[in-house]
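In the design runs reported in the main text, the only information available to the sequence generator was the tokenized backbone. The following block is the verbatim input for one such run; it is reproduced so that readers can re-run the procedure and compare outputs position by position.
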């Protein structure tokens, strides 16, 4: 455990708590966290996760813009995806997992190419759904976070594994909170 991992973990917990509360400051705090994790993952040869952190940096900026933009929909309301949207997202993430896994397996010395690729692809999908305030992001995050705990334990990133265990609990809380708010908004409509 390095001081960088400790600080990145603390920022990650803060960012998720702020996300659950729909506070737009989750995005700049998350931006700092993902840039720190890019370096941490590079050091342990989780290359897809290094790339993921840079994509997350862009998605942090996208989420911040989406959640704070002015105009017709300031603060974008919570919503749900249709079954075809869910299926399309999951199929695209599966395809990306296979392509990225193959590339990592045959083109790098990645420590866990297939796990790294799969978790990266599904994290991208969960992040996109989160930026769009789609309630389905949370159950996907729960599955991804549980699998990340196992990956990080096998990579001796114990503090990060602990953080992702906390993320799992926070994602469950986020799912309940956002679902409740979405149901209330539908009753009022």
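Verbatim output:
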């Amino acid at each position: 455990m390095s001081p960088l991992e400790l600080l990145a973990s603390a920022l990650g917990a803060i960012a998720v708590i702020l996300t659950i509360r729909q506070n737009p400051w989750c995005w700049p705090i998350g931006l700092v966290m993902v840039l720190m994790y890019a370096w941490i993952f590079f050091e342990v040869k989780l290359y897809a996760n290094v790339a993921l952190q840079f994509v997350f940096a862009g998605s942090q900026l996208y989420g911040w813009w989406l959640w704070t933009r002015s105009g017709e929909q300031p603060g974008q309301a919570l919503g749900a995806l249709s079954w075809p949207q869910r299926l399309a997202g999951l199929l695209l993430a599966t395809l990306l997992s296979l392509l990225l896994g193959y590339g990592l397996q045959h083109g790098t010395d990645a420590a866990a190419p297939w796990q790294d690729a799969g978790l990266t692809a599904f994290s991208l999908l969960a992040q996109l759904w989160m930026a769009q305030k789609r309630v389905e992001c949370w159950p996907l995050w729960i599955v991804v976070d549980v699998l990340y705990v196992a990956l990080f334990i096998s990579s001796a990133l114990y503090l990060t594994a602990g953080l992702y265990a906390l993320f799992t609990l926070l994602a469950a809380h986020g799912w309940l909170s956002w679902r409740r708010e979405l149901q209330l908004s539908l009753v009022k409509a």
